[in-house]
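Sample 1 of the test manifest.
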Amino acid sequence: MNFSAYGTKPFEWFWMRDTSELGSVCGLCGPNRMWTFIITPIGSLFFTILFTFIDVTIRGDRAREPLVTFGFDKKSEKAPANIEEGAVKEVDDDFLEA
Amino acid sequence: MSFFASGMGAWVVYGTTEMGATPRLSWLGVFGYSIASAIPGVFVMWLGPRIRDATEGEDAFSTTDFCKVRYGRFMQFACAAISVFYMWIYLVAEFTSISNIYALIVGKETFDGGAMVNLNVGYTTAIAVSIGVFTVFYTGIAGLPASIVTDKFQGVMMIGLVFLLTVVVCSVPENRVSPEQFALASNWTVDGFYAMVILVIAIISAELFNQATWQRVWAAKDTPSLRKGFGLGSFLVFTLMFFFGIMGMIGYAKDPTAYDNLEKYAYLAFFDILQPLAQGWHILVLLFVTTLTASSVDSLQNGITCMLSSDLLNISSNPLMIKWLNRLVLVAVNIAAVVKSSERYNVLGLFLVADLVCATAVFPVFMGLLPKKWGILAPTELGAFMGIIGGIATVLVIGVVVDYDSKLMWLYLVLPASFNSILTAPIHFY
């Protein structure tokens, strides 16, 4: 299989173009494609945990608040800023009970 | 029934059929595709009530709204962008499939292999436009309720037609194959295993961003109805997909040489076994695939517009304005999808691109369900957003590793070297 197309444009790997003569099914075959689908979610899981750790370490409880809010957000109009943290906690507690 | 009908597009007559008619993939490919299409429903049975509870009291209609409630605007935007991308690709795939099927059944060539150009683009585009206009018409007027009502009707119709087709196709003498012939199509292969793993991960990741599915979570009467509906829907999805896979295997078994020499295409194997039937049956099949397409397209159209609904409700209290804004978005999305479908991309390839994008976000979004007492496992908004960026970076690094290019060494520098080594070790090892 010829992968040379992927070497020149970094985002090409997302397209998983089939360069073989076997037709579209080859988009599914081969261990490289399989490992891509296994590793990618694991990579995002790793980075999520890593950056959450860094975020909580640096910003403390503020890390649990939304990064930005808009003027038309209902909650931000009705309540002071710290209510957002309460809302998150409420959601967390709901899941805990569930 | 609604989950079953909305999830079953015209591509079902391509997907598992292609696996079945490709001996390299055979049983594991068929099983992988079928189970991968059914499992998301089982996941929603478990995740759905939790996400619905998490957004209780909010104007929530989708998982993007869940992201807004649980994280904030950054994650809402990321989730919306990924969902729209996936659903739009799905829409393009639907339009591409249905126009190709019409062209095939009425005997119009769609591709000139010698000149490498698409043929009869005007005809296939007209088919896509017809489906788009018709579905926009009724979803624009009646929205989700129309989609759910048509889904139920379409679901019953599909089951009836599949039953009828099974009897007719299997009773035609030309379609009989001996055990020896069938053995050629019936294999258990390593390539089939790869395909199975890819499809299971890809389709689960992607379907969790299909807002057409999530709309049915919010529309369900209560949790038991939701679980019952999705459970039954998953079973029906698996059965139908598996049926088409076996049809593909029968198609290959009938004429293996033609498939091996690429005189016949694996993804058209279902139509190969329809060939001996009279024209009336072909019209019935067209009716069947049109129903499949309409049920998926209307659900996707509603899914795409629903992501805006919550914010539109906050911005404006004028229902007429909200309705017309939604219709405008609906028309714009459909025009773009029809234009793209006229380029006739490979349907499976299109889905895999969208699936991989969704795989970068599945953990960051749904780890939001973990309670805060789990510490760093319950992500912050910044952590989840960076997780998605990290997932995208992982794909880029894999691309570089697979085909090493020194010009792209900067990609290695984006991520910690030790992390790259751990992640890409299996590929190096292979």
